[in-house]
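Researcher: Here's the sequence for the chain we discussed earlier.
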Amino acid sequence: MKEKQFIQKGARKVRLDEFLEEELEGAGYSHSDIVRTPTSTKVVIHAQRPGLVIGRGGSRINELTEDMEEAFDLENPQIEVNEIEDADGNAEIVAKSISDWLEKGGHAKRVGYTYIRRMKEAGVIGAEVEITGKLSGNRGRTEKFSFGYVKRCGNTSKNNVSSSYELARTKPGAIGVKVRIMDSLPEFQHRKVDVEKEIFHETLTDEDAAAKSERVSQVITEADNMTSGEIERAMEDMDERIETSDIGVDEVRDAFESADQAEEDSAENEPNTEETSSEENDSEEVTDDSPEDGVDYDEIVAGTIDDAKYQIEQAEDPDYDKVLEAEKANKNRTTFVDWIESKI
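Model: Thanks. This is the structure I predict for it:
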C-alpha cells in the first residue's frame, strides 16, 4: 500500500511539472518543489522571470493556485516563486533554450558553442552538451561540446551534477538535447580541476558510435558484475588501454541488459532439438573432443567471472593451468587472470 502511495505522489509531481511548464511558457520555468505543512501545501516554483509567474497584482499566481487545487487535489496550496539568478548555470533552462533555438532553425554547432561558452562564463566547474539527430542531411549524428570537469558516475554525479533532456521538434525530425552541469565539487574532492580548459567539440557519426559500442563491450567483459562500483573500477583499470572518459555507468548497464535480452530472444527462436535420435546423442557423447577430466574450461570461462569462479570451485580437482590457458585464449580478463594465478 505504501509503495502505491509513493508511485501516486511521484506521478502527480511529474504531471505538476508538465502543467507548470505549459502554463509558464516564456517565464523561464525550471522546476518546482512541493513542501507539505500541517495546514497547507507549499509549491515552490523556480523560474528565470518570476514577474511573469506572479502577474499584475498577483492575478496570474491566483489563477495558478485555483487551477492546481482543482487539477491536482492539493490541500490549500500556497505558491512561492524563487528567481533563478544565473540561468546559464541551470541545466533545465539551458536545455530548453537550446531546444527552442533549434526549433527556430538555429545551426547545431553555433548553438552548442554559444551556450557552452555562456555556461563557462557562469563559473560552473564543467559542462557537457550533446545534440543528437538529423542535424543536416538524412544521416543522424551527435555534436558534443564540453569543458572543465564533469563527474559521470557515483554519488558525486548524483549530488553535484544537474542534468536535463529536451526534445526539439524540427522539420527533418526530432533532435535530442542533453545538458549536464557540475556546479560544485564535493568536500572530499582532491582532484586538481582546470576550469579554464579549452572547449572541446566532437562530432560522432554512425561509425564513431560503433567504435564506442565496442569500447562499452570491453568494459562489460572486464567488470566482475554490473554494480556501479565494479563498472567504475573496470573503467579506471582500462583507462590506460582504451578511452573511457566518455562512457557512463548507465550506458554500460543499458548495453549489458540489451545483450541479455538479445540472447533470450535468440534462444526462444532456436529450433527444438529434443527430437534428435538417440544414436546421434550417443555419438556426440563419445567424441574425442570431450575433456579428459570431464570439465570444459572453455565453456566455463565463456560466462561471467562470478559464475566461472563458482563452477571452478565446485569441481573436485580443478586444473588451474588449463583454466588460465582457456581464459587467455578467450577473454583474457585481467582481474580473472590474477585470481587464477593466485590459485596456482
